[in-house]
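Example (one chain per record):
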Amino acid sequence: MCCQSATVCLVKSPALEDVAKLSLAERLRVLPDPRRRRGVRHPFVAVLLVAASAVVAGARSYAAIGQWSANAPQQALARLGARVAGALGLRIGPSAATIRRVVNLVCPGGLAELTGADPGGADSVAVDGKAARGSRHGTSPAAHLLTAMTADGRTVTQLRVPDKTNEITCFAALLARHDLAGVTVTADALHTQRVHARFLVEEKKAHYLLVVKANQPELHRRLRSLPWKDVTARRYDREIGHGRRETRVTRALTVTGLGLDFPHAVQAVRILRHRTDLKSGTVSRQTVYAITA
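Predicted structure:
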């Protein structure tokens, strides 16, 4: 497996059905140890399990992960498979430097595939990209990750977007190995691409819900010009969170036969958002368009 090419990682990962019923430790044993044999002191899987346990416990940096490892009880280290040292058989957790080095060497695509959830049977899968906080190192840019998640918050898979490219080139590679039949895939305006729509509907037998913004000017103009005033059925949603009160008014319109030039588009959606900042009292209004198949 290659830690540089996300596409290669995804292709070489084990078949998902082969690892679906395995525990996390058993899944991680499928990954090859990227270290040279000489000088290895800590078991490969144990290092990954210690890092994962520390993050679950609230660690948000390698320093915090190393601190958790150094202070973890012997029983926890034993269950995680930490190495044994001395005549008393004490368990020794890996240091922060060791954890950083091993995690940086691990094949990211293979790790994501092995630990991801099966999207089969899910109502929807959301695709989104984010820069990994704290991943910038020296002159190297921050790692940009493209992730697919189910509606209930389970990560399906993720890959690192190679430098000098963008999320668009990684969309198909991210989802290619998964059974998405009947699943609605949602994504932001960056992925409102004709090739993505055809890939989802024709190859994956999935549905899509894609946001349309000004990066698709002609499509956005056509959506704005649809007869929204004639739509009588509306949905109202109200919620309070993140320091604001928001009201959303949603209208849906069937677009077959209306000349909307986008592959497999069946319906268009207009969402009118009214937001009130609870601290300042500032009121804002935003209109969002989306298409679905």
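Caption: The radius of gyration is 23 Å.
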